[in-house]
Structures are given as structure tokens and as C-alpha cells.
Write a structure and sequence with these properties.
Oligomer: heterodimer
Low-confidence stretches of chain A: 278-287, 290-304
CATH architecture of chain B: 3-Layer(aba) Sandwich
Distance between the termini of chain A: 72 Å
CATH topology of the domain at 163-304 in chain A: Serum Albumin, Chain A, Domain 1
Strand order of the largest sheet of chain B: 7-6-5-8-9-11-10
Largest sheet of chain A: none
Helix content of chain B: 10-25%
Largest interface: A-B, 32 and 26 residues
Shape of chain B: globular
Radius of gyration of chain A: 27 Å
CATH topology of chain B: Rossmann fold
Mean pLDDT of chain B: 94
CATH class of the domain at 163-304 in chain A: Mainly Alpha
Number of domains of chain B: 1
Number of helices of chain B: 6
CATH architecture of the domain at 163-304 in chain A: Orthogonal Bundle
Distance between the termini of chain B: 26 Å
Low-confidence stretches of chain B: none
Mean pLDDT of chain A: 87
Order of helices and strands of chain A: HHHHHHHHHHHHHH
Chain lengths: 304, 209
């Protein structure tokens, strides 16, 4: 019946799903007067009806395409946040080696990545072959720390477009860690909030399930100001409330993608209640995770 | 000054005359009843109209919009034009483009690469105008690749961004090269820098050879 490559060729007019697929995957060698052809084919009664169906099909196709593309972006984000952690950890280990070695040669030897950077920036000619090796190692260490910083900026930039609500509530780095720990935004959206609460505390959780330890109160979400900044006897409640809202944020991000600022407001209110509202001044945080220092690692196995 | 397309008017917003179209607000622009201001600083086509370039647009024509982005300009075009096909390849802005297209039955969002017209030729009809604002290398090539969609007497309304081609070269040289490349397919009718609205951008009106 139809002898053309139009997106509607042979389609049932009511079948928006197949129409959207055609719009996405189809192709043609050249444009044609599709509205007239669609009327000839009986796909639409007139041009107005054709444009109505075209609108429906292109909207559905673009929506599905955006979802799919952004889901693919979450996989890139997972690699980036894991690489960031690898670079940071490795830079720290190498910085320790540099410090230990430098201690045998320089009186003013310091410690940490900062010292490795300082050593790497020295313009002086190495005094002997072993100092040359030491300085080269310091350079590599500094470069690795730079890469960790670059990866962190990339994560901070990318997370809000992959998961706008989760990123706003958790801060981009913690949001990326949660996505990474559950393997993707789609699987994070399917987790119960009790699982999200202890993501990253698997060792402690399994110790508990074996019967040898109390249940962990929080995993990586410990880095969030709302958990860390709440006094210890209320931290379990704060972690539960936070995990609940983060789970909802992840679901909104995965299934609709719209930004819903009211979620943050609900969480702020809940945490204020847990902390006893106008009580202590410790909770002045802005609701984002504090990512400096090694707090993420420290949160890993909190089983108490 | 040449005529504006039907559906585009100069109206007073907060005391100053500005271009405006009728439609749902999309990006927080000022409104006056059903009219909404069209900011030439945020829209290359808006700047071309503001600067009095003869776009040949009369209102109601079919349009292929390449580089629709989040729909700032595309929404205004759909307000005064007929069927408007909005092609954009980046997923994030298409989310906003979808919001612009929702209340506009004549704006059709297409998540497609403007460098590959065969991937949307099965959807797009021959059009009266192509509006192009793509911020990638090879902007002239995109225009020639899409010439097949343009009717014989149609208009290409192109904004060339110098920095997208080569940040280090003099914009004037970049524009000359792009126009040379266009000449094989199009006859250039008018060209003009889009300053002060957009730095290092050249507005071009052309018609198929």
C-alpha cells in the first residue's frame, strides 16, 4: 500500500509507541510532502490531524530518547566517581612514599599531597640520580592529584544533569557515590530506602546479618551534614529521614527528571524536628555533604 | 526597516519597545497579556530581526530549526510560524525543548544530529525556511547538508559563530571561509554582524541556488 519511507508508513494511527520508535530509528533518502502522503494513505483525515499525530509521536520519541541518553550518562558518571576515588587514594599513598623518601634527604621535608606538589614545583637541578627519581615521583603524584581534582569537577558538573534532585539534596559527589554504589540511577531508584541508608556500609551490614554486630545506621550518607551534624543519639533518625528523601529524589530523577525543590524543603523541616528545632546551633549546614577530608572512607564501615 | 513577520510585533515592555510574539512563556521572559518579549541578546534570529535584516519571513511558513537547544528561539518561531521542526542533538536541553513544545502543537522536537539529515528526512517535510544556530564546527557544512529540505524560493537564516569554528582565528577570516563554502549551494542575499547582541557572530540570509 505504501511506497515511501515516511515515519507513518503502515502504522496504525492510534499506536503512539510504534510511531515514536519510527521517529527515532527511521530514515529516508530525502524529504517528501509527508502531510499530503499521510492523508493519501488514510493515516490521517486531514493535515490538521496529521500534525496532531506528528506532535504526539515526536514528543514521545524525544522524551524516550532523552531518558535513554541520560541513563547512559549515569554509567559515565559511575566510572568518573570511581576513578576519582582511585586517583585520590593512589595520590595519597604515593605522597606518603614521597614524604618518607624525602625525609632521608631534606631537613624541611613535609607530608601529604601538598608536600609532593611543593617538591614537584622545585626548579633546582637534582643533586644525584636518586634525587632525580624522588622528584619525578613527586611530579607523578602531583599530576595524579590534579587528575583527581579534574574528575571531581567533572562529577560536580555532570551529576546535576543526570540526577537533578538527588544532586541538589545530597550534593553532586555524594549523589554520584550513591549511583555508583547501586550500579546506576535505575537500580538506585528501585532500592528501598533502608538499603539506601546503609549503601557503602556493606561489611557492617553483613556482620549484623551474621548476628555478630548491631545494625549499621548509615553508609556513605554519613558524609552528609544532616547526618554528621546531628548529635549521635539522633543520627539514626536523621539517617533514616535523609535516606527516605534521597530515595524519593532518585525516583523522581529516574522516572520524570523534573526538578522538585519542595523535596528539599520537606527534608529540611524533618531534620529540624529531629534536631529539636531551635535547639543546638550545630545544624547550620546547607544540606549538602561535606566532602573534604577522608570522611567518606571513615563512614564506610560504621557499625555502631 | 523591513517588515516583521505577521505575529511578531514591537510592543512596550516596562517602558521600552521590544520584539514580542504571542504564546506561552517559556524562559521567564516578561509578558504583557498573551504577548511575551523576545530577547535579541538571547536569540540570534531575534537579533537578525531587531537589526532589520530582511529574513523573508512573513508568518505561517514551515520551518526547519537546526540547533533548537532548549527552545528559547524555537518557541518564538513556533508562535508565528506554521509547522516547526526543532532539531537538537544534546539530551539535556531537549528536556526544556519538550516543555516549550508541550503547549505548541506545531513545534515538533527531534533529538537528532543536524549533520545527519537522513535520520530525520522521514519526518521533516520540505520547508519555507531553515533557521540554523548550531554551535559546532562545520556550520556551513550543516547548512549545505540540509539544503535538500529547503523549497526553491525558501530562505536559510543562519547564524555563524566564529568561536565554534576556531577560537584562535580572526572571526572575519572564519566568516569568509564559511561563506565560500556556502556559495556552492546557496546564494547569499544579506550578511551582517550580530553585535551588539552577540559578539563574533555573523547573521546570513541565503536562498538555494
Amino acid at each position: 500500500m505504501t511506497e515511501h519511507d515516511g515515519w507513518f508508513a503502515g502504522l496504525d494511527p492510534g499506536d503512539t509507541e510504534s510511531a515514536a520508535e519510527r521517529v527515532r530509528d527511521g530514515s529516508a533518502d530525502g524529504a517528501a510532502d509527508w502531510p499530503a502522503l499521510a492523508v493519501d494513505d488514510g493515516f490521517a483525515d486531514d493535515e490538521a490531524e496529521y500534525y496532531e499525530r506528528l506532535h504526539e509521536a515526536t514528543m514521545a520519541a524525544a522524551r524516550a530518547g532523552v531518558h535513554e541518553r541520560e541513563r547512559a550518562d549515569d554509567k559515565q558518571l559511575i566510572h568518573a566517581v570511581r576513578a576519582m576515588d582511585d586517583c585520590e587514594r593512589t595520590a595519597n599513598e604515593l605522597a606518603e612514599r614521597v614524604a618518607e623518601w624525602a625525609g632521608t634527604r631534606f631537613d624541611d621535608a613535609g607530608t601529604g599531597v601538598e608536600y609532593a606538589r611543593e617538591l614537584a614545583d622545585r626548579e633546582a637541578e637534582p643533586a644525584d640520580p636518586s634525587e632525580a627519581r624522588l622528584l619525578a615521583l613527586a611530579e607523578r603524584t602531583a599530576a595524579l592529584a590534579d587528575e583527581a581534582d579534574e574528575l571531581r569537577s567533572y562529577v560536580e558538573e555532570t551529576t546535576p544533569s543526570v540526577a537533578p534532585n538527588l544532586a541538589a539534596m545530597a550534593g553532586p559527589v555524594l549523589a554520584a557515590r550513591l549511583i555508583s554504589l547501586s550500579g546506576g540511577l535505575d537500580s538506585l531508584a528501585k532500592q528501598p530506602s533502608s538499603t539506601v541508608q546503609v549503601l557503602g556500609a556493606e561489611d557492617a551490614l553483613f556482620a549484623h546479618l551474621r548476628g555478630s554486630a548491631p545494625s549499621p545506621k548509615h553508609g556513605v550518607i554519613f558524609t552528609h551534614e544532616y547526618v554528621r551534624g546531628t548529635r549521635p543519639d539522633e543520627r539514626g533518625s536523621a539517617a533514616r529521614a535523609l535516606a527516605g528523601k534521597l530515595t524519593i529524589a532518585a525516583r523522581v530523577d529516574h522516572y520524570s527528571g523534573d526538578r522538585k525543590p519542595e523535596l528539599d524543603a520537606e527534608l529540611d523541616e524533618r531534620i529540624a524536628t529531629i534536631r529539636g528545632t531551635d535547639g543546638d546551633g550545630s545544624g547550620a549546614g546547607d544540606g549538602e555533604s561535606d566532602e573534604d577530608g577522608g570522611s567518606a572512607a571513615a563512614a564506610g564501615g560504621d557499625g555502631q | 526597516m523591513t517588515d516583521l513577520p505577521a505575529g511578531v510585533e514591537r510592543r512596550a515592555f516596562e517602558g521600552s519597545e521590544r520584539l514580542a510574539t504571542r504564546g506561552e512563556p517559556h524562559y521567564g521572559e516578561p509578558t504583557d497579556g498573551e504577548w511575551r518579549a523576545w530577547n535579541p541578546d538571547r536569540s540570534k534570529l531575534g537579533a537578525m530581526l531587531e537589526l532589520g535584516m530582511d529574513t523573508g519571513l512573513a508568518g505561517g511558513e514551515s520551518v526547519l530549526y537546526l540547533g533548537a537547544a532548549s527552545g528559547t528561539t524555537a518557541s518564538h518561531v513556533a508562535d508565528f510560524a506554521g509547522p516547526t521542526y526543532g532539531v537538537e542533538f544534546a539530551a539535556r536541553p531537549v528536556r526544556d525543548l519538550l516543555d516549550a513544545a508541550e503547549p505548541r502543537g506545531n513545534l515538533f522536537p527531534l533529538l537528532k544530529d543536524a549533520r545527519k539529515p537522513e535520520t530525520y528526512a522521514h519526518v521533516v517535510e520540505p520547508v519555507d525556511a531553515i533557521v540554523q544556530d548550531v554551535a559546532t564546527r562545520g556550520q556551513a557544512k550543516v547548512a549545505t547538508a540540509n539544503a535538500e529540505f529547503l523549497r526553491e524560493d525558501g530562505r536559510l537564516l543562519l547564524a555563524i559563530k566564529a568561536r565554534s569554528e576556531d577560537v584562535t582565528r580572526d572571526p572575519a577570516d572564519v566568516f569568509d571561509d564559511a561563506l565560500d563554502e556556502l556559495e556552492s549551494t546557496y546564494e547569499v542575499l544579506e550578511r551582517r554582524r550580530l553585535a551588539p547582541h552577540h559578539d563574533d557572530h555573523l547573521g546570513v540570509v541565503a536562498t538555494p541556488r
